[in-house]
Design a protein that fits this description.
Blueprint (H helix, E strand, L loop, with lengths): L16 E8 L6 H9 L7 H6 L6 E7 L7 E7 L7 H8 L4 E7 L6 H12 L5 E6 L6 H15 L11 E3 L8 H14 L10 E10 L3 E8 L3 E3 L3 E5 L3 E10 L2 E3 L1 E3 L2 E8 L11 E4 L6 E10 L11 E6 L2 E9 L10 E12 L6 E6 L4 E10 L8 H12 L3 H10 L6 E2 H8 L3 H14 L2 E4 L3 E4 H20 L5 E3 H8 L3 H13 L3 E4 L2 E4 L4 H20 L6 H8 L3 H13 L3 E3 L6 E3 H12 L5 E3 H8 L3 H13 L3 E4 L2 E4 L1
Parallel strand pairs: 1-3, 1-4, 4-5, 5-6
Antiparallel strand pairs: 2-3, 7-8, 7-15, 8-14, 9-13, 10-11, 10-15, 11-12, 11-14, 16-19, 16-21, 17-18, 17-20, 18-19, 20-21, 22-24, 23-24, 25-27, 26-27, 28-29, 30-32, 31-32
Helix pairs in contact: 11-12, 11-13, 11-14, 14-16, 15-16, 18-19
């Protein structure tokens, strides 16, 4: 269904590929006239738009084209408002586009909304586009060349840099340059990679209306996955149920629709009054809306510093709400910099890792920054320093490494395949395919009940079981323990507990006798010792630079403090841990190696305590010993209150 909800459901077309291109640019620079010249569709559908002669809300059109015998391409266009008052509507359309058509009037050149729209596109991760100079019939050749030079200078260093992407002069009125623009768009659409077929289906709704004879109709850009007619779906937030009666793609009825397509769905089981822009259509029981997210945040060059606990306007896909910014490290975010932050949203939105967002603030509102979502399911009650360290690892991790990290942070509680699919946005079958390599390599274990556990967590769980057995033996009551009693004492999940028992039995560290568990003479002490050392090393590795004290870890693992200190001494001798000074503060050698690499990259620069805390996200408790360690390792040299990186 296109701009008007009055077209009948008509026969299907089957282009080999579909992409969505959004317009961008200042008010009255000719975006709507350009789309009308390309497609024959007037995207200004509202009476207010007709009366005022400007675009107020999103408009839609499409073009199916073929070039040199190649399979047909379907290009969907989203025409967005250019007026500053309607940037929120522009953002609702920009979230799901594959490329941008940046429109600049040859009469006026670069204007404020040209700059803001381009900044928004960059923040949203858009990497493809074409720049168009419109109204060329209204200026002289000399003026056109001057505007073209100024536009090329403005675009230098952006994804629309004129050295790599064309600047095409056109006139929608006379038709000059339109053939060149069509060919450029066909070439652009052919270069854009297809969407990931292994992702969960998500359709952010930008319109909902009632159509006579059909009932409720919703439209949006399918950003991932696929839908088919007759399918049951859920509407988030609120987990409302509906059924897809029919599907249209730009006025043509189709049985199925894939990601990267503008689509209209006829829904049964839900009324128009129950829906609003920003709701998201998903597969039933696949994912849910969230209101707490961890992100990588970036500020634009001309934005004011963003303070901890600041309130901002948050925009993602067709959704908008207020958000409170909690900065890791607390210091304000400066322009042109990136920081890790946690955002608390004023209402739930369907969001997943990798999604892009924009934030605005001020009076009147203006765009100050944006970024990407790293985690839409933060682990409750996880220490902030540990969470910060985990996010730093996640930031630069490859996709397969991110899966490892997500499983590892769940510890010996593990995570179900379905829960991990919801957390990553991957379909369960695609997730299992991605898990094949780490499972085969032994980094991750797939337990009965489709529960995933990291090797470190399984080692820690085994250590816990052996510790409880040892404690029971020392009591002198008996040489065996009931299975149910041991499970109760360890508080391990059923799948984890049973898997640990089978593993320890295969390693001959215990013996299973029906409902009782017995220790194995001769191998008891070495087995317990090895498992406990592995669990302690895993705990230090997971903590990163913000390592726990021996007392804290002893209490957490229910091991006497003296024994914990003895185990830590063994790990220091084996160089698994590194002692930072005369006190008991120790850090895993991998965390130290990562810190050294990060500091070496700053060679020649100066560091003070505040900058080091911001760099690492650590408190002064950890920052000072680490800086002193770097001095001893001759990576830094102290000069008064600062240090020079050597």
């Amino acid at each position: 269904m296109t701009a008007q909800p009055s077209a009948p459901w008509s026969p299907a077309v089957d282009p080999s590929k579909s992409v969505v291109i959004g317009t961008a640019g200042h008010i009255d620079h000719g975006k709507t006239a350009l789309i009308r010249a390309l497609t024959g569709v007037d995207t200004d559908r509202l009476p207010e738009e007709k009366r005022r002669g400007i675009t107020v809300d999103l408009g839609f059109a499409s073009l199916v084209t073929e070039s040199h015998g190649a399979p047909p391409l379907q290009i969907g266009f989203i025409d967005v408002p250019g007026h500053a008052q309607f940037v929120r509507n522009m953002l609702a359309g920009a979230g799901g586009i594959d490329a941008v058509l940046l429109v600049v009037s040859a009469e006026e050149g670069i204007k404020p909304q040209t700059e803001e729209h381009l900044a928004i596109c960059s923040l949203l991760g858009i990497a493809h586009g074409v720049t168009v100079l419109t109204k060329i019939d209204a200026v002289s050749d000399a003026d056109l060349n001057e505007v073209r030079r100024a536009v090329a200078q403005f675009l230098a260093g952006t994804f629309l840099d004129a050295k790599a992407t064309p600047i095409i002069p056109v006139s929608a009125h006379s038709g000059a340059g339109m053939d060149a623009l069509r060919q450029a768009l066909i070439s652009l659409a052919a270069r854009i990679p297809g969407r990931d077929a292994g992702s969960l289906a998500r359709l952010p709704l930008d319109r909902a209306f009632a159509m006579k004879g059909f009932g409720t109709v919703v439209t949006g850009t399918l950003i991932s996955g696929s839908f088919k007619a007759g399918q049951s779906v859920a509407i988030e937030p609120g987990t409302r149920s509906a059924r897809i009666r029919g599907i249209q793609v730009h006025g043509h009825a189709v049985p199925t629709v894939a990601a990267g397509t503008r689509v209209a769905l006829n829904l049964g089981g839900v009324e128009v009054a129950e829906l609003q822009r920003g709701d998201t259509l998903v597969e039933s029981a696949s994912t849910a809306a969230v209101d707490l997210i961890d992100v990588e945040l970036e500020l634009l060059p001309h934005a004011p510093p963003l303070k901890h606990r600041a309130a901002v306007h948050f925009h993602a896909f067709a959704s908008e709400c207020m958000a409170t910014v909690s900065l890791y490290g607390y210091q304000a975010v400066e322009p042109r910099t990136k920081r890790l932050a946690r955002l608390r949203l004023s209402k739930p939105i369907v969001l997943l890792p990798g999604d892009r967002f924009v934030i605005r603030e001020g009076t009147p509102l203006f765009t100050v920054g944006g970024g990407r979502i790293l985690d839409a399911h933060p682990v409750p009650k996880l220490r902030k320093a540990a969470c910060h360290a985990w996010l730093q690892q996640l930031c630069n991790a490859a996709p397969h490494e991110q899966i490892d990290l997500r499983v590892a942070r769940r510890g010996w509680a593990g995570i179900a395949v379905r829960a991990l699919a919801m957390e990553t946005g991957m379909k369960p079958d695609a997730l299992l395919a991605a898990l094949a390599e780490p499972i085969e390599a032994g980094r991750i274990f797939l337990l009965p009940g489709a529960v995933l556990l990291s090797r470190e967590a399984l080692d820690a769980a085994a250590s816990l079981v052996l510790s409880e057995l040892e404690r029971h033996m020392k009591s002198g009551v008996a040489n065996a323990l009931k299975r149910s009693e041991l499970k109760s004492q360890t508080r391990l999940a059923e799948e984890v507990f049973e898997s640990v028992l089978r593993r320890l039995e295969s390693e001959r560290k215990l013996r299973l006798r029906n409902e009782s568990i017995e220790t194995v003479d001769g191998g008891k002490r070495s087995g317990i010792e090895a498992a406990r050392l592995a669990a302690i090393a895993a705990a230090f590795k997971s903590a990163g630079l913000s390592a726990p004290s021996p007392e804290e870890l002893a209490a957490q693992m229910e091991i006497p403090t003296d024994e914990m200190r003895r185990h830590i001494t063994l790990l220091l001798r084996e160089k698994v841990l590194v002692r930072l000074g005369g006190d008991s503060l120790c850090v895993h050698q991998r965390a130290v190696a990562g810190l050294k690499e990060a500091v070496r990259a700053l060679r020649g620069q100066t560091l003070d305590v505040a900058r080091f805390k911001q760099l690492t996200g650590l408190s002064r408790k950890y920052a000072i010993p680490l800086l002193e360690y770097l001095d001893r390792e001759r990576l830094t040299r102290r000069q008064g209150d600062t240090r020079v990186v050597l």
